[in-house]
Amino acid sequence: LHCDVLKMADFEYSDINPANELEKRIADAFLIFDHHGNKTVDVREIGTILRFLGCVPTEADVNEVISATEFEDSNGTVHLSKFLPYVSQLVAEHKMEPAPPEKLLKAFRVLDQEGKGFVDKEYMTKLITEEGEPFTVEELEEMMAVAVDMATDKIAYELYLNQLLVDF
């Protein structure tokens, strides 16, 4: 699986010359977030850009990209000239890809020890906010809005995974 890089509108590159279609798409996505027209973005936009490209980075991944691409004297900005080759290589190496559906199903089945086909909302909320890399409040709300059956307050995980596949 690879980052699903979206086809974007053409931008003026001037001093940046994307070498292939992948680099062009990455540059196009980056330039959407360049609010000053100087081929730079605030480091706080990097996670959004990566997700916009279809990648699924952890916060550690985002921080790694920032560390590798941020200019030392830039006051928290990343220039396209450093971002483009670095992210192109990550995408080419299939980094930051979403987990395959089979792996997600297996994980849900581990959580559903009784094999009922669902996980309680409260249990899932506790896990994803307290274990591993915790979800943000926004990520939690987005997930629960799609995943939870409001009538039962449970996550029927096979249905939820099917919804994810349709949306993806």
Give a description of the structure.
It comes from Anopheles atroparvus. The protein is mostly helical and 168 residues long. The chain has two domains: 21-92, EF-hand (Recoverin, domain 1), CATH 1.10.238; 101-167, Recoverin, domain 1 (Orthogonal Bundle). The protein contains eight helices and five strands. The protein has helices at 21-32, 46-52, 59-69, 80-92, 101-111, 121-130, 137-147, 157-167; strands spanning 40-42, 77-79, 119-120, 148-149, 154-155. The strands form two sheets. The protein has a three-stranded antiparallel beta sheet with strand order 3-5-4. Strands 1-2 form a two-stranded antiparallel sheet. It is elongated. The two termini are 12 Å apart.
